[in-house]
Amino acid sequence: MTEDPASEYADETPLGLGIAELSYLLSRFDSASARKSVEMLQVNEDYLSPLVTAVGASSLLARGMLHVNGDEVEPNEALSLVNYILAASTRWIELGFVGDLDVDGGLLLQAPEASMFLQPLSLGAWQVLVKDRSTSDMRTLRSLVDAHFEANPHGAVHFGSTTFESVQTLSVRMEDGRWKVGLGAGGGRRETEGPDITAEELDQKLVELLSG
After folding, report:
1. Distance CA 6, CA 141 (A)
2. How far apart are CA 180 and CA 157, in angstroms?
3. Distance between CA atoms of 145 and 141, rounded to whole angstroms?
């Protein structure tokens, strides 16, 4: 995958969050969406302890991303948006990019008012990119697909779309310049066989992934 393929979709410059900082944000709201974000980000419950989250809050304060307002600790505008998406998401889309030599991944979180793309870094840290709201999530996913296959023409891209009600999967590869897709449900995945599809049909498959 090309370097930082989603960077052009960020409202702000990429934001790096360490595991303690991310755990602090996840601990601020006890919502079903926040708990699902913990699961999808594979954050160990031990990281949500008071000690670790206090370390995360201290780090964010030192970076100027939190500030003290009386008895309250409040995030700045950029961090507040990230926290909102973590605590209010209704869809979590896992992305797997299979290249010629390696495998990369990411996670797109959709909340009612905003979406963001996260890429894993080392030691449990994440790079966070809040998506430009003028670009649809379908167009974002399609651009990621195009960027990956430009760099890895024999690779594949796998999507797993999770909501509170369902899990849908979509696998995409290219064969002799033609698109092949495989669909699945309930966490299963089918091989990317079957008839060729057009670019427009691929877009429609991505729309269905985002709405199913």
Report:
1. 9
2. 11
3. 6
Q: How far is CA 26 from the centre of its chain?
A: 15
Instruction: Give the C-alpha separation, 148 to 5, whole Å.
Output: 8
Torsion angle in degrees (nearest 10) through CA of 11, 165, 24, 158: -60
DSSP 132: P
Q: What is the DSSP letter of 168?
A: E
Digit-coded pLDDT (tens) for 102-152: 889 999 999 999 999 999 998 889 999 998 778 899 999 999 999 999 999
- Amino acid identity, residue 66? L
CA angle 143, 149, 155 (to 5 degrees): 135
Instruction: Give the contacts of 68 (CB within 8 A, at least 6 positions apart).
Output: 61, 74
Record the tokens describing residue 127, joined without a space. 């790079």
Closest of 157, 201, 154, 189 to residue 175, by C-alpha? 154
Please report which residue ranges of the chain form alpha helices under DSSP H: 19-27, 32-40, 50-62, 77-88, 137-151, 199-211
Copy the structure tokens of residue 134.
Answer: 């003028």
Q: How many CB atoms lie within 10 A of CB 150?
A: 11
Express each pLDDT in 141-197 by its tens digit.
999 999 999 999 989 999 999 999 999 999 999 888 889 998 776 555 555 555 688
